[in-house]
Specification:
Elements lengths: L13 E5 L5 H10 L4 E6 L11 H16 L5 E4 L2 H14 L4 E3 H12 L4 E6 L1 H6 L1 H9 L4 E6 L3 H6 L6 H15 L5 E5 L7 H10 L5 E4 H15 L11 E6 L6 H9 L6 E3 L4
Parallel strand pairs: 1-2, 1-3, 2-9, 3-4, 5-6, 5-7, 7-8, 9-10
Helix pairs in contact: 1-10, 2-3, 4-6, 4-10, 8-9
This protein binds D-glutamic acid.
The site of D-glutamic acid (DGL) has 17 residues, from helix 3.
């Protein structure tokens, strides 16, 4: 039995986890769209980044995070980390008895719906790119689509440093975008929770590269999927109730609060440090 088991399924929280604080971009969108929902967030800051680790390790970490959150009595689990979604979503869906939503499927669907020419660019971590998860999901939805992906390993540390403007991020973004853009993509999917924070730089570099590609991030598509499942399963919380956000992290590093505020768009109420292993 979970810690805070709520009898009425509609009143149970939605659990969201990420390798670190990037998933707060998804939480911000969920709070905006579903202000009555209770959200429990876990950032695995002690072990970020996931993007450079092996699939076995990421699966193990994803299970540690999920087991911690499930004990909070969830009605729905959102895997906000692209890397964890790429490597662990099948295992989590199979092993858990609540609905599990991952950002890869959500992002792939938005990309397919929004691309006109079927040429889709994906910018993601090395782990997500190597997993081929976006190619697989997009291919399932639209077999004729062409996916051009590129790993952008420097973007996560830049965002974690708060270095999100100026010539350094601009040059890194340019280098990562060039090989994608020259393939005439009309849609660019930001396949990492950290990248929406670099949105201004990305938009500017697309202009500089004379690309008209539409940019899609995982947060918006994920919120669409959450809305669908709340309706389909009839598990949305009463809209007259006030929502809440409880935040946990496996570490509280230096400049943590500043970074959390950057991702969430406002100061989070409080973060509790937890041990999940
Ligand atoms: N949250 C991860 C993702 O969306 C990015 C950071 C990491 O590498 O852990 O892929």
């Amino acid at each position: 039995m979970s810690d805070n088991f709520e009898k009425d399924i509609n009143d149970r929280p939605i659990g969201v986890f990420d390798s670190g604080l990037g998933g707060l971009t998804v939480v911000a969108e969920l709070m905006k769209r579903f202000p009555s929902e209770k959200i429990v967030y876990l950032g695995d800051n002690a072990r970020v980044p996931y993007g450079t680790r092996s699939p076995e390790t990421v699966r193990k970490y994803a299970w540690n995070c999920s087991n911690f959150l499930v004990k909070k009595g969830l009605k729905l689990l959102v895997v906000a980390c692209n890397t964890a979604s790429a490597m662990a979503i099948d295992s989590l869906e199979e092993g858990l008895d609540i609905p599990v939503l991952g950002v890869i499927k959500a992002g792939a669907r938005s990309a397919v719906n929004m691309s006109r020419n079927g040429k889709i660019g994906v910018l993601a971590t090395g782990g997500t790119v190597n997993s081929g998860a976006y190619i697989k999901e997009i291919g399932l939805l639209k077999p004729s689509a062409r996916v051009v992906q590129n790993a952008a390993p420097l973007l996560v540390p830049l965002v974690e440093e708060g270095w999100i403007e100026g010539e350094v991020p601009a040059l890194a973004v340019k280098r990562y975008l060039e090989p994608i853009i020259k393939n005439d993509v009309d849609l660019l999917l930001l396949g990492c929770t950290h990248y929406p924070i670099l949105r201004k730089v990305i938009d500017q570099e697309l202009i500089n590269l004379k690309s008209k590609a539409v940019v899609v991030d995982s947060a918006t598509s994920m919120a669409d999927d959450v809305g669908n499942i709340l309706n389909e399963k009839n598990i949305a919380r009463d809209t007259s109730k006030e929502g809440s956000l409880d935040c946990y992290s496996t570490d509280l590093p230096f400049s943590f609060e500043e970074l959390a505020t950057l991702f969430l768009g406002k100061k989070p109420s409080s973060f509790q440090k937890v041990d999940i292993i």
